[in-house]
């Protein structure tokens, strides 16, 4: 290439990158991206999974432009206060208000006594399921929090209660009656229970109304005011109850109601302000686009740009859409406007200059500090095991906080699952999402119990955990009995594959079902094995007198030790045979005979271990060899077929109910299916391009640990029941050990006494 050509290329590349603005597009809109690829377009698609991924890309400058909803803008100001810039807002063309909404409290014009003057009064609320205004739980509860102080509960007994119960209980003591329709909890059982116990908070909804909506007589409809709008209904509830009644509604609808529907009574009502004063709804007040005082002002959704290019982006947007409206016609400008800004109902208002996210929201709506906000139930501490998991957890925490979900979350990063399990046991963390592999250790050693099971998409290979026994094809083993005195490979001591073998060995009577020391049982049956962690206290299943060294002698260090002393039993990657891939490497070792492991990712894992499918064969649970070599999903062949993962907490944690319901709430807002997604953050998706953080990417929801409806759940519970039902000679952990010791003493004493008496 000559100098001239090179220069041309450099100029061209420079020109192309300078001209192209990378616009976040969620879930690849093919038509849009193709249209933008056409010559002349200054924008290119930057495909992202979620708006949160877009924010992360804008922050590090790998995307240039993103569009964020109202609540996403609030979240952005919290997570990235200075890192990215708001260049414009997007509003509804039919609305001139400077805010997306203002939430106001309307009372009788004769009201006195500020907030306290409402004690014993009535409360009309638009409802927790109203979608027209996109009010978050935080917005929906703003007023009641201030007047009834539902966030202060100095003397409340919180044990076994949910955040919702404490809140509704306090509220019901402040207002004598109310209509607060819609779900009070994401957990339907809790919701139904509270609705029946606190029915006074539903008594204004109408006769025989199950608190789902208003069924009061709305009278004849008036053009321009929708009788079925919840805010209008709440205002009607206020009008008919009048004295000592408050309606918490959107200012926009207050104007409609009192200027169009009921102008004759407008001046008999007033807006109640945060300082307790009131503003009569005169025509002058009602003519104003902004409320005389309000409890929440919501910023409009925004166009946000990466910091380094924000001024440039602002200039460019003004060129693309000079009037801020859909230009129409068949150009890329129109296509892009329709796709990311909105159709004909959206209008862009440009900032004079780009401002930081926090600068934009602060003057409109600010949230109390995440650590200083009061709540009756302390933040539930989520244990994470990597920096990336921690980052994802922190965004979930920030989003939950922005939306006002309670109790709040905190995130604690540890190095591995065992540190998390120990922290939860020691009450320095509250919960963790844990693979089924740790299920037995978590129950037996750490005394934890499941709050939820994680549900995975049925079509995905990771939907359930499957454990198999794999032999080398060259092996002369045909039955479990043949395994005595051989060499075995396990991914981890006490892990799911290990205990699945123990259970099968019990079934086949090759190890005594009265031997409850599962390290002795396995260690004495095999010649030796690699069961990483077998000598570590963190993995102890029982108080054992067994020297488990032979459960480690098959293990090999990843990096050979020069001295030749290659003894290793670590449960991390320093042990070459640790984990499911490690167990296959272990099986590839000519000295070993069998490996017990999980099937997840088996094809890739076999390749990693250098094994061909034709070199291995499964030994089935019914004690026959699989008919073919390789690995098949034959259900009868599996040693275990159980759930994939679960959420663990301390056994008997008095706050377990509130955690359980919090998880339901997170699933509602950030889960797989959501009708009320205010923030595009997905708990079960890859985060920032990294898969399987906190949850596997294939997760679709959570279920109850004891609501055993499917086979894997039943199997999982049965496996632990089987293991825990062992009542042989060995004693389980400390507490029980003492008990057994006492009963043995009792037994000896009794038999001595019997002998004495007999002679
Ligand atoms: C209230 O909700 C019920 C169902 O829960 C519905 O049948 C009814 O039509 C609704 N009433 C009004 C006035 O919207
Ligand atoms: C943000 O606001 C502060 C004070 O209101 C102002 O001094 C600062 O220049 C603003 N910064 C940006 C980038 O908008
Ligand atoms: C099976 O093979 C092992 C060595 O791999 C050998 O020690 C043993 O005797 C063989 N057993 C039978 C029954 O052939
Ligand atoms: C366990 O056995 C190994 C080898 O058999 C021995 O080196 C080690 O000292 C023993 N450990 C204990 C605690 O007895
Ligand atoms: C054991 O299970 C395998 C795999 O499903 C099956 O092919 C075989 O017929 C079963 N054998 C017996 C004896 O049930
Ligand atoms: C609802 O919450 C309770 C705890 O208060 C829990 O026991 C129950 O399993 C949860 N889920 C459902 C679907 O009710």
UniProtKB/TrEMBL annotation:
Domain of life according to the entry: Eukaryota
InterPro entries: Transferrin-like_dom (IPR001156)
Signal peptide: 1-18
Listed SUPFAM superfamilies: Periplasmic binding protein-like II
Segments forming domain Transferrin-like: 21-369, 380-725
Gene Ontology cellular component annotations, sorted alphabetically: early endosome; extracellular space; plasma membrane; recycling endosome
Gene Ontology terms: biological process: iron ion transport
Keyword terms: Signal
Record-linked PANTHER family: TRANSFERRIN
Designated name of the protein: Transferrin-like domain-containing protein
Taxonomic lineage of the native organism: Eukaryota, Metazoa, Ecdysozoa, Arthropoda, Hexapoda
